[in-house]
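Late entry, evening session. Most of the bench is empty. Finally got around to the prediction I had been postponing all week. Sequence below, unchanged from the version circulated by S.P.
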Amino acid sequence: MLAIDLYNPPVKLTCPACTAPELIAGGDRTFGCTYCGTHFIAERTECPACGELNEHGADLCSNCGEPLSIVASVIDRQGGTGRPLWIRRLQTQVAGLKESEAHASADRFEGLMEIDRKRKTEEAAAHASQLQKDRSILFYGVAAILLIVLIVLVLAVIL
């Protein structure tokens, strides 16, 4: 990581006001120049990609690794595709998203197919039930007609 630890700097920091050779860390991200007396606060840098607050002077985001300075951005682009890191990370997630969407779509389709199978099964059962009723009506109708014909024949013989 290219971050600079301002509390334990590897090199002496110079004052931005008078360019004196040494700044004194006052704690709680405050610094002071012993030569000109200027005091300032090192503010945190917000990552443009994820919004994470990083220590002042950090070159890369501690959360997503996105370059925070122009120098870090140039160094990062020298070894990459030229696109920001967060875009490259999203591009690696595209295949997984497509696959999960394909599975979700297949699951939805299977659910619809199951509903259609149930509907067809219920229709077939209703059709079979109707055929049974039709056969019963036909049987009892023929039986009634035969009974009437038999009664008419018996009455014709008797009379």
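Two things to note before I forget:
The longest strand covers residues 23-27.
The chain has two domains: 1-82, 83-159.
Will write this up properly tomorrow.
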